[in-house]
Structure formats: C-alpha cells, structure tokens
C-alpha cells in the first residue's frame, strides 16, 4: 500500500495552467499533485558564443527552488552565491530533454531559455519541470510561428518525464516526497510521444536492482508519460 | 492622465490569497495589479549568532525575482553567484519594516524568515512584498499562538507599504512599471495602521522635489495603505 | 543633553582638505568631527556598456571602510570576497545624489567615479561621503574645463547631505556614533543648494515616528546642509 | 568499423597500478586505453555534520581534470572559482556508486574521500574513476583492517563502471573520445559483481533510442565490467 | 642620473605620523616620498583556530590599495570579489616580517592584525607598509604593557624594509614608480636592526643579475634601513 | 646529520620523464626524490588582452596540488572556490622564471601556459615545477620550430630552481618536507645556466640570517642547479 493510497501504476493529478504569467513568450504552472512548478520560456534573438555564426539555435534550461518550497526552509542559492550540484544536474537534464525534440537548425540563430522554478515541492520536481517546459516551449514557438519569425515548426514531437521507483519492494509510478525519501531505487525517464527514450536514469539509493526491475520501471514510466502527453495536448489546445 | 487610466490617488486592484503554499508556517500570494509576489514565513527555533542567549527573537527577509518576472529576462542571481545591490537593499527594507511591528522579546528565541519571491513584476514589488509579508507573518504567529508556543501576541499592529511618485508633474499613487520608468521622483512609504511612519524613502530620479511634494506623496501613501490594511484584515480573517 | 554636549541643531566641525592626494583628477579629505572620508574623483573617457553610443556620460560611486576605521575591527570586504548589503546601498545612494546635480548630456561620453573610503568612522559616513564627493567632482570637472575637454559646466549646483535623528525624544542634527546607536529614528537627507530634495530616507530603528517629526528632521537637515554648502564653497575657492 | 579498429564489444586495455602515490591510505592509477585517472582514498576520523553522532560513516568523492588532460586546454576550475555542473554531476555519481557497496554502519564514524583526478582524457573518465575508486577504497579499508581500526569488512562486493553508446547505428562498448563525440546515445552503467545495477544512465545525444537498444547497451556493459572486475581482483591481490 | 635627481644611495623623505587614527590600538601614516600608507594595529584577545590552546599569539597583516592610489584607477578588490595574487603575496610578506621580531609565546593568546592601506602609491608600498607596521605594532604593544596585559615586551627589535633595483645599469636605493617600471631587477630586503636579514627577494624583470649585483643591492638596503630605523625610533619616542 | 642521511650539498634523485602525457605540446613528469610534478606546456595562438596587437608573446604558469599529494588531505581549491595566496605566489614565480629565458618578441603573438600539478609532495614543489617547466617549454618550442611556426629559437638558455635552507644550524641543499618544516631559513633560487640569477628569495622562518649565510645558500643552489641542468639536457636529448 502506498502512503498516498494510490495504486502502483497511478499518477497523481496532473494540472497544467498555460499562460500563467504575462511577460514570457511561453509560460505554464504545472502540478503533479502537490508539486507545483512555474516554467517560463524566454526567446532571445542571439545564441551563446559557441554557436555564433552557425545558423543554429539553442534551447537551454535553468532550475531553482524557492527557499520554502520544501518542508523545511533551504538556504537561497543566490544568497549562498552558488548553485548546488543537484541544481546544476537537473538543469542540464531539462535542457538536454527539450533539445531532444527540437530541430536546432530550423530554430535559427535564437535561444529559448526555460526557467523552471519550483513553487511547492512534493517529489518529482525535475520530471514536472521537463513536462511543463515542453508546454512553455510549444507556446513560445507557436508565437514565433504566428509572428512569422519561423515558417516551419522546429518542435518535432512531445516529450514528457516521470519518476518511478522501488518502494518497499514494489515498483511504483510518480513518487511523492514520502516515497522518494524511502525508495530503494529511484528512476527518472524522459520519453518521447513515439515511444523512444531520451534519457533513462535509475539510481540505487537503498538497494541495487536487477534488469527485470529496470524494465518494470520503464513500463510504469510509459503509463505515466501517456497521461502527461494527453494533459499537454489539452493544455496547448486551449 | 495616467497610462493605466487610473485617478492619481487610485490604487491598482489588491488581491491577497492567504495559505497559497502548504509547507510554510505562513504564506500568501499578494497582487498589486499585475505585480504578483509569493511570500512565505518560515519559523525556526534558533536565532542568528549575534542574538544567541539574549532571549530575543528575530524577523528577517529575503527577496528574489524570478528571471522572467519582468518584460525581458534577467540573469538568475543564483547563477551569477551574487545578489545585486538592489536585491540586498530591498530585503533589508522588508526586514526592518516587519521588525517595526514585532516585539522581539515577546517572540522569544526564534527566527521568522520572510521569503518574498516576485512571480510577475509590474512596479511596486518591494511594497507588495512588505504588505504581503505582514499577512504571512500574521499567519505564522497565529500558528505559534494556536500551538501554545507563544502565549501572547508579539505582533503589535499592521504594517503596509506603497509606492508613490511624481509622474509628468502630478503626484500619483501606486506606480506601475510604465509610470515608474518615467517618474521624476519615486517614493516608498512604510506606514503603520496607527498612522506612524516606519520608513520614508523619496528619491529624485529625473528631477528633485520640494517639501510640499514630499508631503503630498505621503498623503497619497496614507490613502493607499488604508486600502491595504483593509485587504490584509480581510485576508487573515478567512 | 547630547553625549557630545552639542545643541540639538549643532553640526560637528566640518573640515575639508581639497587635493588631498596627487593622482586623482579630484580629491578631498572631508571630516564631520571624527568621521574622516577620503574621496577621489577619477575621470575615464568611456562609459558603461548600457550607455555606449548615446552621447551621455555617467557619474558613479564606490564606498569602502578601512577595516579599523571603526571601534572594533571589521573584516576586510576584499578578503571576504563580497561587499555587504550596507556598502552597496550606500554607494548606490552616493551615485544617485551626485547625478542629481550633473547634466549627463553635457558631460559627454565619459565616466567619473567617486571613490569614498572611510579612514575613520564616528557616524555619518555616507553623508560626509556625499558632501565630500561634490568637492572632488567639482575639482575634476574644473580640470576638464581648464583642459578644454568640456566647454560648458555640467555641474548644475551644490549637493550636500547630513544625518538627523530622534535621540531620547529630541530631534538632533548630525548624529555621531554614540547617538546613532541609540537613536529611535535615523534619517539621511540629500539636499540641493536651491532647497530641493534629492533624497529623503527616514527609518524607524527603535520607534516609529509621525509626520511632524519627519518635518522637524528635514528642517534640521536644512540647517546642517547650509553649513556644508558654505564649507564646500570655501574649499573649492582655494 | 570503430575508429580504433576494436570490435563492438571490445574494451580498451585496462591497466591498474595500485599504490601509485605514497601518502594516501589507498591509491591507484587506472587506465582505460589512453584515459588515465589517479585515484586516492583518504581516511578521516570524522564525518560530515549531517551524520555526526549517528555511529555511521560516509564515502564521498571529488573529481577534477588537469587543465591539459584534454586535446585543447580547459581553464583550471580553481582559477575560475567554481566547479562546472559536469564536474559536480560526476563526483556525485562516483560517491553514490561506492556507497552502494559499502556498509556505512560497519565503517563507523569515519569518512573516506575518493579524489579522482584525470591525468589524461580519452573518453570514459567517470567510469574509469569509479572502477579505480573501488581499488583505492579496497586498499584503504584493508589498511584499516590491518591496523585493527576495523574488525569486519564494510566493503560488500566489487563495483565497476563502463560507458557504452550507439555509434553510427551500432551499440559499442567503452567509447573513446572520437566515438563519444559522435555517438547518438551515450550510456554509463555502474554494475556490481553479483550482476545488480547501481546506476544506469542512458542519454540521447544525437538520436533517441528504444528499449531494445537500452538492453543491448546494458549487455555490453556486463561484458566490460566483467573484465574490470578481473583487473580489480588482480590489482588488489598484488 | 635618477629621474628624481636623487643620488643612487639616497632615500626619499621618510615621514612618520604616529597615532594617525583614533580607534586602533596602534596607528601610523608612513610616507616614503609620495608613497603614503596608513597602518593600523588591531589587538584581539583570541587567536586563529590553528593556534588555539597553545598559549601562543599571532601577528598577521592585510594589505589593500585604494582604487585611485595609483595613476590610473584600479578596480576595487572588494567589488571584484577577490584579492589579487599580488595583494596576497604582499600581505603574507608583511606578516612574516613582523613575526620575525615578535616572540609569539610572550605575546600570549592574542592576535594583532596590521592593516596596511595605501592611500597614495609611488613605488615601494610593501616596504613602507612593513616599516610603518613596526611602528603601529610597537604602539599597540606599548598599550598592552601600559594596561598591564603584558608584563614583558614581546617585540625583540626593530624591523624595516626597503626596495632597491638596477636601473639603467646602476644599483639604486628606494625606487619610485618611474624607476620601478623600468628597472632590470627589483629587490626588497627586510632587515633587522642587528643587521640580520628576515627576507631577501630579488627578481629579474628585464635582465638577470649576478651575485655581485645582489650584494650591492643588499648594501644599499642597509643604508636605507638605517635611516628608517632612526625615523621609527623618533616616531615612537613622541 | 640530515633526516634523509644526505650530505649537506647532496640533491635528491632527479628524475625527468619527458612526453608523459599525449595531448600537450610539451609535457614532463619531474621528480626531486618523492616530490613528483606533472608539467604540461599548452600553446595557444592568441595572447592576453594587455598584449594584443603588439607582436609579442607570453609565457605564463598555473600551479595546483592534488588534494592528497600531501600527508594529510587538503581541500580542493576548485571546491573551495579560490586559489590560496601560496598557490598564486608560486604560479607567479614560475611564470616570471620562464619568461626570464624567453625572448617574447621572437615567440610572436602566441601564449604558452605551463600547468604544474603536484602529484606527490615532499618539499620543493615550486622548484621542481620551474625545473620541469623548462623541459615542457623546450619540447613545445621544439614542436613549433619543427612545424615551421617559429623559424628561430626564442628560448635563450636553461633555467632551473632549487630550495636551500638552514637546518639545525647547517646550510643544506634541496630540503625535503621534514627539513622544510623545521628549517630556520628557507630559500629558493632560480638560476640560469650562465650563472646569472633570475630570482632569489630567502625567508627567515625560525631565525633570521646574515649575509654570509645568504651567500652559502646561493653556493649550494649553484651545485643543485648544475645537476638539474644536466638532467634537463639529457631529458630533451631523448
């Protein structure tokens, strides 16, 4: 029995509020249960130095957690003067995941930055960030298409992410904080709508796992991402 | 005529959503028009080193702006590795303002940190932060009273803040971003419900001002803070 | 009775030694009693990136305190690796104050940096810095005029600053350190010779204050700045 | 055909020189072909603050690359003043991998730090680091057992790591730099001698991949880790 | 002929104003010609962690240069967020030099920090700092003796320092900035009153030098330090 | 009697392995007894900003010590976020020493960076670094000559460095760590093959020294550098 009473393959409620803020080219407040992440997409008509003059664009991400998004207050990274290793690892993952579905040549020499800020945390903040970032990116690119700055769509398909883990011997989908803290293994899968995998990361926390378990976690992730794809579709159709 | 069509002494709509997040001892989403600030109050049962063993508490604040709260994206302070002078100035002001209505001896050896994070900016983020911080602090202290950790209320009265300025020769209340960028003088007043002043800051941006103008700005601030006090009362009564 | 035996509206001795150092385009050692600040004005024939190509100049300030300027030694900011919030707040105030009396268009594409370094502190270091910075700026601009780099004077009038506060219930002028530590309210006024206000900041430290008190503090500041304007005039006439 | 002429399931030469330096409690120079990593294990009789007084030990890792370990010189992280996101991600992975085979309760209140410094890089520096770190850790723990500081062995089994990837459509084992730069997908597996998985990370670089590919990469990793386990056994037997 | 018209073995005017500031336990403004350094000695009744509980004291130094001490403005180290290599090298040298004449056991568990801040620079700032630091230290220790905190004098003798160099083929004493910029070799000697050497550093800038030149520079330094010892004696006798 | 049993004028074994790593234009592993330093020379076809457009090259150095090169582990400078004063002092010395034998005009607008990383430390790491850096630089310049990028040799002669000190009253050559920790005076000499001095630094640690002692240390250094010159010659002849 999961602490939340959910079935092993049951996601938390997915909520997506597109256009949550007014300034960004794309924005969304995504919720996986009590985990709430605000994602904005900012379009800039320039690329980082390593890409200049190559006619290609770039999609990148930054991640942050408000100090009291969690149960006890964490120091503010801006005040400490540096981003933690965890923050950097997550923002690198988000950037890679979105680039996996973007044709950077078609995007042209512009950069889109996805800022993922966790308003409230209850497990799965990085997977909610990726799933929400796709919506923000979709909205920003829709804007570029509408303004005629892009004539063809560089976004090739949907991408979504979800966490899974082995909790008290049972593979379960979409861990909340209580499960995450006690999981033996913890995995994050970034999947494309066509079924392909952009990223698989499965880490033993309390106990190592075997190949069979890895495959079961992947199957759970397919169930969860299916639901997320549906919610993304609905959100951008609004 | 103001760009927004408001009368000179007209505030923007004040919105206050108490208990906006679930983990913090107090939390609120406050809006002054399109300016939206999330404030959380975090209670810790320890005080900073300079106060240890003196039987007194501390109230402090931190301030941040999400990178795309504004019209064009700002670099993330955590990524740059330091907080700007503006950020530090604002968070010092918020802390002082709340301490002006808190009896630190009655609070006992505990610290309450008010995290003010700007979700969307349209002028007046520091004054919305102070006004919202009072609500978050009130809720956190109500919790301490309810739990019996405090037996008497250390919060002496309400505090609120609003900006005023001289825009095209006219003193106006609660500047939005368009007015703020073009104001000749820009003032922030932090007022108590009993009419006293906790902080007055009036800065010449484009043109210096005279004593008469200073007093007219203060009178506008009294009008604005009156409305904020009413909204605060309603929010904490919920 | 004030600890120093001064009357409530009595300034400390104002001492101004122009051309205190030899390399800077303008320099001064200013004293308000035991508070001693060395201010240098450095002219550079370039402006910060945000102003390039606009035909305008810039006036900015930096502030520092020698580690043992105070009664007990403070850590050196260069060794700690960052400037405190207080330092940044003060240097932003000094810069704004001097820009309030400078026609930046007439200055042309050059920057003047006012470095204010506190050699000895006894209260009022920021107001002595502003008052001394005007002298250093005046000398630097006189040099530019003498060399023919400027043909008209961009400095529109004098600016001076002084602190006032409510000490044991009495509004007093030009607080020294002992008074400053115990003041209920503490204000800094930056005034122009024509009577206008460039900046008013009045902060409740121990007790909030009313409108009447604010006005009395302002009147004290007018008395103090009058004396400073006279001292500035004498110093630059040398 | 691989650029190096190796078969798809062929590792590069594995070289392990135990006790490469004299001061550390354990040390090794490990080579996977031209990739050379110096790993030292340092034992300290104290644990990080979050573990104090719990009777448990800690195993952690730091990772660095000499500026000219690579084909073109990289800036020294100490000179830049911060570790890159990549560095932090790698050192977190190394630490987790070694903790997966250490019984921290049996280790007692002491910390072992594994410093992995890349002398020369040609792909696979993180996997060589993990594989070498096990040897350094084994030697350090052997020392603690020999000195009687430990009476039972907290190291439960061997751990090794290897990279695999899809290069020009073919899954290949132990990518060198040329392959790594051009791989469509790039995976790192951390495996235990008993066949279990401590960490699986598979990232799409150029093209996403399917479940079948993930499993083929895992099977290649099993081949590679088998060879590493044998080399580790031989090295610690010396 | 030297640019200043001085003879090769001629020092610039040495000026020493003891007790230049009022807060520090010892203070001095020392001048070697146009080079002016303010040195303060701060006594603290605690020692750095590495010395705690050993019954010994510590003498250390910090060095800084005001941004416009030099001909063109240098960035403020506090604003840049770090001290340059040159600054750190100099402050380490000053600390060592003063420790060479202090019996740290006799000083007891207290630390004296010598802050050397260059008000105006014209070559020889580090040697003026050392020479002035001795005076500030002497005054601070005299105070400790007068207060009865010390019963015996831990300062064993005088220490002074001077620069010498080879300028256009001629060994010269006490280089000013013009000579220093063009010197082939540049040396700093820290000498004791008894003739012993605490530190000798001779660096080839434009051309390497031979043993004979090294000895001639040392002899010039003896002449210069003789004059400094006399000035120090006079200053502390006041 | 020296702890190592060496005669006062006896160097430790000098070992030089040229071309120790494959990517750098020049590389060497140099050993002075148990002190082992890896030096790489990296050629870049650009110069630092202060030299641009002047047709001159630059030779610079960076220095680092692996965390466990020493008997007890030191914090990693990259993790601490800054280089120590000692590190900066050493890398400045190495750079100056190599520039003393390089004709920068002949080198043309390119920079050679010498990275000196201490693999194992037992005293004398800075002098081994300088001595090894000459070999790495020689190899890099030989490469530029062979490729035709240089037509004449900018390296004018050999440079080597060695430490000497006064240990228990006896001047000794090439201090190991045990001697270095207990030496009364500690000197580093950087000598050219023609007998000239590029840098002499002699520091009193426990006791000051006289002119005679300085000269005896210099004579020991001549003996040591003679051996190093021979070893350098042999290494580059391979």
UniProtKB/TrEMBL annotation, chains A, B, C, D, E, F:
Keywords recorded for this protein, A-Z: Nucleotidyltransferase, RNA-binding, rRNA processing, Transferase, tRNA processing, tRNA-binding
EC number: 2.7.7.56
GO MF: 3'-5'-RNA exonuclease activity; tRNA binding; tRNA nucleotidyltransferase activity
List of residues binding phosphate: 86, 124-126
Enzyme class: transferase
GO biological process: rRNA 3'-end processing; rRNA catabolic process; tRNA processing
PROSITE patterns with a match to the protein in the record: RIBONUCLEASE_PH (PS01277)
UniProt cross-references to InterPro entries, sorted A to Z: ExoRNase_PH_dom1, ExoRNase_PH_dom2, ExoRNase_PH_dom2_sf, PNPase/RNase_PH_dom_sf, Ribosomal_Su5_D2-typ_SF, RNase_PH, RNase_PH_bac-type, RNase_PH_CS
Domain (Exoribonuclease phosphorolytic) ranges: 10-140, 159-222
Signal peptide (residue range): none
SUPFAM superfamilies the UniProt entry points to: Ribonuclease PH domain 2-like (SSF55666), Ribosomal protein S5 domain 2-like (SSF54211)
Recorded catalytic activity of this chain's protein: tRNA(n+1) + phosphate = tRNA(n) + a ribonucleoside 5'-diphosphate
Family membership noted in the UniProt record: Belongs to the RNase PH family.
UniProt function note: Phosphorolytic 3'-5' exoribonuclease that plays an important role in tRNA 3'-end maturation. Removes nucleotide residues following the 3'-CCA terminus of tRNAs; can also add nucleotides to the ends of RNA molecules by using nucleoside diphosphates as substrates, but this may not be physiologically important. Probably plays a role in initiation of 16S rRNA degradation (leading to ribosome degradation) during starvation.
Subunit structure and binding partners: Homohexameric ring arranged as a trimer of dimers.
Protein name according to UniProt: Ribonuclease PH
